[in-house]
Write a structure and sequence with these properties.
This protein is mainly α. 84% of the residues lie in helices and 0% in strands.
Amino acid sequence: MSLMDWSNYRGALMGRIGELGKLSPDSVGGYMMASGAGAKTNHLDEKTRQLISLAVAVTTRCDGCISVHSQKAVESGATTEEVAEALGVAIAMNAGAALVYSARALDAVDAASKK
C-alpha cells in the first residue's frame, strides 16, 4: 500500500513549477543551474547524486524533492537496499543534529539561568 500517489503528485507539482517558471523565470532558472552543477563536474555518478538528494530531501522534509529524487534514483539504477542505506544516513544525521541542538539548548538554558 502506498501512502501517497507519488506519480500524480509529481506531475501536478511539475505543472505548478512550470507556471512559476513563467512568472519568475530567473528564480526557477537559478535553481535549475544549481541543480545541474554536479553533473557537469561528474565526480559523483548520477545514482550517488540521487541517493544523496533523496537523503537530503528526507532531512528537509520536502515531499516534492522526495517524489522527484526517488524516481530519478530508480531510473539511475538505485536498488531499494541502496535507498534504504541512504535513508539510514539521513535518519542518523537528523538524530545527530537533534543531539547537537539539544546541547545548544542546554547551553542557552544555562545562560538564561545565570542572569
